[in-house]
């Protein structure tokens, strides 16, 4: 596996790389990331190249967010990438990616207004800007993203459509701990007591999904079910949002016939955790 840290080296690598499948990350890698890289390896077969990136993107963090203390574990990350089947990892510094006097960025004006985007203003503009830059640098044929960050996946699909990036986007199922908690780099911020309560998020989402499968289609009732479970078993959590939306447009739904998404974000002190389930027949 090759480690590349500069744009110049990356450009040279790309000329010889053939078909590329790309997995962008912010590092602090876990089994969720490993599953994306393994999936990319599967898609690539022996012929194509699997590339990953590790870059904590300052543009997508708000002024009071955790950019400075975001975990940086490069050595362990490289070992995980190699074990999962990556051929190349691009791990640039911030000045390598952003010119100090940069003056152009991407703004998303629709899908980013709800869910996480509502409480993280500018976050998805930062994500779109860095993903566009990474796509221009790595020039992948296909790219793989996790459904844990469902809004991000929907916005990346829109980015590719609206700006004509020749990249096929794949969404991969969320990998969970044995007790249901969605794996996330930010789970390490949880205290023991918070970690014990955090599986309640997926338990509540699963209960609402089970009720929907049993015929409850009204969002109001589904949200009541969710809130009841969370009130009973996640007393340390503070809701940021819990919403039922169309899984493509991310617009709120009153009734869910098909193609719904229940998405939530809950703060446990320093850790803001997100999770979601699809309501698909
Ligand atoms: N549990 C998971 N299962 C599947 N994919 C995941 C999981 N967690 C993250 N991903 C995906 O990995 C990619 C990189 O995400 P990122 O590096 O932000 O990881 P993260 O663990 O979600 O970190 P954070 O806590 O910052 O959200 C994204 O496409 C994201 O959706
Ligand atoms: C897509 C991404 C790598 C852009 O910084 C990041 O938002 C992430 O890790 O999900
Ligand atoms: N996985 C999304 C990256 C972020 O929270 O900034």
Automatic annotation (TrEMBL):
Known catalytic reactions: (R)-pantoate + beta-alanine + ATP = (R)-pantothenate + AMP + diphosphate + H(+)
Any one cellular-component term (Gene Ontology): cytosol
Give the active-site positions.
Answer: 33
Q: Which UniProt keywords apply?
A: ATP-binding, Cytoplasm, Ligase, Nucleotide-binding, Pantothenate biosynthesis
Positions with a binding annotation for beta-alanine:
60
Instruction: Please give the pathway this protein is involved in.
Output: Cofactor biosynthesis; (R)-pantothenate biosynthesis; (R)-pantothenate from (R)-pantoate and beta-alanine: step 1/1
Q: Does the keyword RNA-binding apply?
A: no
Instruction: Decide whether keyword ATP-binding is in the record.
Output: yes
Task: Please name the top-level EC class of this enzyme.
Answer: ligase
- Which Enzyme Commission number(s) are on file for it? 6.3.2.1
One biological process term in Gene Ontology: pantothenate biosynthetic process
**One short Pfam family name for this protein?**
Pantoate_ligase
Q: What is its main location?
A: cytoplasm
List the Gene Ontology MF annotations in alphabetical order. Answer: ATP binding; pantoate-beta-alanine ligase activity
Which locations, inside or outside the cell, does it occupy? Cytoplasm
Q: Where does (R)-pantoate bind?
A: 60, 152
Q: What does this protein do?
A: Catalyzes the condensation of pantoate with beta-alanine in an ATP-dependent reaction via a pantoyl-adenylate intermediate.
Q: Which HAMAP family match?
A: PanC
Relate the assembly described in the record: Homodimer.
By sequence similarity, the record places it as follows: Belongs to the pantothenate synthetase family.
| UniProt name for this protein | Pantothenate synthetase
**Which species expresses this protein natively?**
Prosthecobacter debontii
């Amino acid at each position: 596996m090759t480690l590349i840290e500069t744009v110049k080296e990356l450009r040279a690598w790309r000329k010889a790389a053939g078909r590329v499948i790309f997995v962008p990350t912010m590092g602090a890698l876990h089994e969720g990331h490993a599953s994306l890289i393994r999936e990319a390896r599967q898609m690539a077969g022996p012929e194509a190249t699997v590339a990953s990136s590790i870059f904590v993107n300052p543009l997508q963090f708000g002024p009071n967010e955790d950019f400075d203390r975001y975990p940086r574990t490069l050595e362990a990350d490289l070992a995980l990438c190699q074990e999962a089947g990556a051929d190349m990892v691009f791990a640039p510094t911030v000045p390598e990616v952003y010119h100090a006097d940069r003056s152009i960025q991407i703004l998303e004006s629709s899908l980013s207004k709800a869910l996480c985007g509502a409480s993280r203003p500018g976050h998805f503009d930062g994500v779109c800007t860095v993903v566009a830059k990474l796509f221009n640098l790595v020039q992948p044929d296909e790219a793989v993203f996790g459904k844990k960050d469902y809004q991000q996946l929907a916005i990346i699909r829109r980015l590719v459509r609206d700006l004509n990036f020749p990249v096929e986007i794949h969404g991969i199922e969320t990998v969970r701990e044995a007790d249901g908690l969605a794996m996330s780099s930010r789970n390490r911020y949880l205290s023991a007591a918070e970690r014990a309560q955090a599986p309640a998020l997926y338990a509540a989402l699963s209960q609402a999904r089970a009720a929907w499968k049993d015929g409850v289609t009204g969002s109001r009732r589904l949200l009541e079910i969710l809130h009841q479970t969370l009130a009973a078993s996640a007393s340390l959590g503070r809701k940021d949002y819990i919403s039922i939306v169309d899984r493509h447009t991310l617009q709120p739904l009153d009734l869910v016939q098909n193609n719904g998404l229940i998405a939530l974000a809950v703060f446990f002190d320093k850790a803001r955790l997100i999770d979601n389930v699809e309501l698909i027949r």
